[in-house]
Amino acid sequence: MSRHRQKIKDSISIAITGSGGAGVMTAGNLLLEVAAQAGWYGLMVRSSGPQIRGGEAAALLRFAHAPIECLDDRFDVLIGIDWQNIHRFADEIPLDGASVMLGDPDQGEPPEVFAKVGASYAPLPFKQMAKAIPGSWPNMIALGLAAGLVGLPADSVKSVLQKSLKKGGGEKMAANLAAAEAGYAAAANLPAVPRLAARVAPGASQKTAPGASQKSAPGANEEFAPGADARWLITGNQAAGYGAVRGGVRFCAAYPITPATEVLEWLAPALPKVGGALVQAEDELASINMIIGASYGGVPSLTATSGPGLSLMTEALGLAVAAEVPIVVIDVMRGGPSTGIPAKSEQSDVNIAVNGLHGDAPRLVVAPNSIADCVTATQWAVHLAEALQCPAIVLSDQYFGQTRAVVDPPADIGAAAARLKASAGAEGYKRYAITASGISPMAIPGTPGTAYTADGLEHNERGLPSSQSGDHIRQLDKRAKKLAQYDYGERWAEIEGEGELALVTFGSCTGAAREALARAAAEGIKARLVSLRLLSPSQPERLAAALAGAKRVLVVEQNHTGQLYRYLRAEYDLPGEVRSFRHPGPLPLRPDEIHQQITAWSRS
Amino acid sequence: MNAPAVAAPITAQAFKSDYKPIWCPGCGDYSVLSSFTKAFAKLDLQPENVAVVSGIGCSSRIPAYTNCYGFHGVHGRSLAAASGLKLARPELTVVVASGDGDGYSIGGNHFLHACRRNVDLTYVVMDNHVYGMTKGQPSPTTEPDWDSKLSPGGTGLRTFHPLVIALAAGANFVARAFSGDPNGTADIIADAIRTPGFSFVEILSPCVTFRPEQREWKQLARPAPVTSTDDAARAARRIMTDDGFNIGVLYKGDRKPYQPPIGKGKKRPSDLEAEFAL
Ligand SMILES: Cc1ncc(C[n+]2csc(CCOP(=O)(O)OP(=O)(O)O)c2C)c(N)n1
Ligand code: SF4
Ligand SMILES: [Mg+2]
Fold it and tell me: Which fold has domain A489-602?
């Protein structure tokens, strides 16, 4: 190979861009599959313009030998199949003097915003190359090129393409295989891009985040992990759907909304296979009331939506609180308020999730902290909702939902739906009986002798409407107590590291925070991470223990007003000095910006 | 073989709860309640297999007054809750109780889509042309010149025509009843329950407090002069040209109810993992 000096890194980032119809997402997805097949970990974030179909698009990929949870601060490679409107991605694809841009000279020069940071540029005529192979597409040239540049094996490209093009027929497959090969071969004559450092131990993955170890030996980058076939390639939205099924959900009613729709599209064919069903409702008012009805009927039920839908659902969430009907609502957060930025991520629904119901309405709010955790957190949310006869909101976001990643399969936490049910003919049955735990047996329609009326009106223990202060206070206490007394175990938060500086965060900021801490640790700065999985009810004693000895607390989140910061200040006594680090979407919080906060604060 | 013991037929009384209604004396809804319990007894239903679902309003108070499973949800969403229940538990008999405000105003969208979806439900709307519970505001079926505090001099808006709208939206069974005839109403409700698909029963049920003039409905209501048809266009023409007091089943179709096959699939959740595996 005619490669010159190659930099060795523990992760590689590559962006593929192009206008509508260029096949950017296809190329990106196939590249991710090639990497997965070769035993790498990786992820692909989708970014697209506002057009419904056919607008500019960017596939943002990152690869490593360890599981990856976030994008890096910058990109090593930018491949432009064409450059139409691609300048719009300038903020999302940070380049620098070490970055390499590859583009088709027939499509013009790369946009000035990219060139001005000093990234080098090498031309490659994708279109002409594809034309020379009748029936092939330029994006397949780009796929081969990307694989060749980062050093993925040609065999993996071939087998992934063969599998993916099987439906297209022999000629199409041959042409596009040839195109990918041509792209792959062309990579050899282009400027070198960094290569992945060798895996730490063959056959086993390096379990720390990229950035944690800078010490891996250079050179052995042709080493691919055998046994990696146990891994999954999954999006957060699919993961949440699967977590719901694992948790026991068998009914879903929902109204489509970006970026939650894929949860529903995954559940629609999956639920019937396990004896369930999905119904498309006429709006979110219908979808949430439908799942309340189904769950009242004894079937664990769920809906998925995003901010605008969650806003419409708040009245019925209160009904589920008052009538004590377990339901789960997955909120795949996007930029808000109002219609906001539909296809981009933001963690700005904390307020509505933890506080957004009228009346005193205790509810569960659970946030996954990685794509794989979308399975576990959703399964846990179903379990908690069922056990506590209460609505649970799962706060996912567009980043998790629509990002596809190679993950280690999350273990089944064995937390199946566990609803306390009344038995037939229970003597003097009282649906809302005051009990020590606050949980009272729920009679399921069809059970003889325990008929009752579930009611959103305040009621007495039997469920009969009551406006008396005694009944109101007893039922308010009951509903608060059952959530407060429950033992949430270790799963309430992910706690890592030690030190007098603590980062408190949740959701999709966790990956970047973890990586920032690893970089700080490599520089000798000790700090700890607390990523909250259970946002509501708050866990003051547990957080106090997790933060014991901390002198500085940095609250990290992706929104404009510091919604988590304010919530923590209201619900907890945080030790020492507390600061908020945040910015709104659509740009993710990158490891470097958090790392800078850590180093600046620990040196001050 | 021994002959099985014959259980005594269930009575309407068995479907009445011991909870005292909050309704004003003379309210039409008392009779509707008794028509519900009569219809259930007539069909020999077991209380544990019946669910009465409602929203908010005087009329929506019915669930707690019946002795079967009940669900008293939020204003306007009874059809959604009932649809979820029936789809998840198809073996139950699900009857929905609503009012002209609950069903035609705040819940209007669900009304259209419930007719269209044709889930096997019975939807009973107690229409008194007024918001009773909130003390006398105009509803979608209130006459344009009806004077009230909220709409002095009347709304000036034409009234909504629920029966025709139900037909246009796809309801499979459409009937008009009058609370002043509890036995006739019980027969219509029983017929509605027996007929598969979405059955809509609009009951003229006077609000004696805010619309005392509705006491006169007793003189106006009469059996429809023709029997029901299975021709929706003919039914619509009849309904649009009658005076609003023809009582009886007006339309009966044979559309197949919407019911996804719940409980059929036998795969385990882990069987679904294959699609994620590399
Ligand atoms: C979201 C919401 N908005 C408003 C109300 C107040 N409200 C209660 S009942 C009702 C109208 C009920 O009218 P109708 O359905 O005709 O029932 P009726 O009392 O006449 O039987 C209204 C507006 C409410 N409970 N919830
Ligand atoms: S206000 Fe009217 S509808 Fe309500 S209970 Fe009284 S009479 Fe009946
Ligand atoms: Mg009314």
Answer: Rossmann fold (3.40.50)
